[in-house]
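Before relying on records like the one below, remember that each one covers exactly one chain. Contacts with other chains, cofactors or solvent are not represented anywhere in the record.
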Amino acid sequence: MDRKQAHIDWRPLSIALLLTLIAPVCVAFMLDRWLATFPVLMLVVGLICIPLATVVVMRMVLRELDRVIAEVAPPDHAADEVQNEHDSRLSDVST
């Protein structure tokens, strides 16, 4: 049995998480300590970056899963053609 193997590429997902969440929160933490405004800047950055990171990373994850699924189980065009032919016959009979 010949099974295809496809793997999720974690590197772009990790980079996206790093750039959209971890780096901004770390910078906000350091600026809060330096400006003595702790927790104000952290709260503002957290309210912006957490939803942003969620949306960006989840879109990338879904795109990556679509790629893996397409590699492992490509769509069967022959079955689609048979189904379309069957549907057209049913519509001809009903009219």
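The CA atoms of residues 20 and 53 lie 5 Å apart.
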